[in-house]
Each structure stands twice: as C-alpha cells, then as structure tokens.
C-alpha cells in the first residue's frame, strides 16, 4: 500500500479525541468543551431482527428487520470540580428529583488525527445523563479518582 493511504488517517489511532456538548441546533450550535475524558465507549448501532419460520420449509429461517437500537454513550474522566458545566448538568438531572424538566443536549465526539484534523465525528442527539458512577477508591494504589457518566440518547449519526 502506498504511504498516501496511511497519511489519510487509516487506520486511525483511537487515543486522540475530543468530546463537546452542543448548545443550539445540530452540529452547527455552540460546542462547549468540558474536562478531558480518558475514555469514550458505546458508539454503536444494531438492527434487531425477527425470526420468521416459513411453513413447510425447514432449511432456513427468514430474518426480517425490526428496529434500530443502541446502548448508552459512556464517558470516563477524572472527577471534575463543582464548577464544571457537565457536573452541574448531571447533578440537576440525576439529583433533581424530577422537579425540573430534564434538559437534553447533543454530544459531539470527534476522533482527531496527528495533524489535528478531524478524522471521524459522531453526534448523539437529545442526550441526557442516566448513570453517574465513581470508580472504587483504593488505599494501596496511587490512581486518579475517576467518574463514569452514561448518557441515553434518541439517535446518533456519523457526521464525518
């Protein structure tokens, strides 16, 4: 393969990425970065199928498309301070006792190449926090205290 093929970012490295929260309509809204994240997972879509057996035919089963499903988008980072907009959004949503309406936002995840060009990007529409975990503290290790936040979303799309 030519060197040009690899210069285009294929296969891309998975360690250089950014996460932003979009205020406004679509990816053209204002992207608000928060803290750095150490891990992003849950980017994926799956089509559910329904098995239909044809009467009198035992050699195969028809798999008919049913609906699209996806898991939660999960972000990991060092525990942020109380001034973080993401912290405030999570606290309001998960500890607000449904006094206020849940505020949904778009989450934008970008995979970035070595020259700081955006190689891939995904937008998760109408996202809101559904789980907020703090990983275990351990007195025998000198690790960073990590929080993991899971987001439900209506749908996602790859925009690049």
Automatic annotation (TrEMBL):
Full protein name: Phage tail protein
Species per Swiss-Prot/TrEMBL record: Undibacterium flavidum
């Amino acid at each position: 393969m030519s060197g040009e093929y690899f210069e285009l970012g294929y296969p891309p490295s998975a360690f250089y990425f950014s996460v932003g929260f979009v205020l406004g309509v679509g990816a053209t809204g204002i992207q608000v970065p928060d803290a750095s994240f150490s891990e992003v997972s849950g980017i994926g879509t799956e089509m559910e199928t329904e098995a239909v057996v044809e009467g009198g035919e035992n050699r195969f089963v028809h798999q008919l498309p049913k609906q699209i499903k996806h898991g939660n988008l999960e972000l990991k980072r060092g525990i942020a301070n109380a001034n973080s907009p993401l912290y405030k959004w999570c606290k309001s949503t998960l500890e607000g006792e449904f006094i206020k309406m849940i505020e949904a936002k778009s989450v934008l995840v970008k995979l970035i190449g070595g020259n700081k060009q955006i190689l891939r990007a995904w937008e998760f529409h109408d996202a809101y926090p559904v789980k907020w975990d703090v990983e275990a503290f351990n007195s025998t290790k000198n690790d960073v205290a990590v929080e993991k936040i899971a987001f439900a979303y209506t749908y996602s799309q790859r925009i690049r």
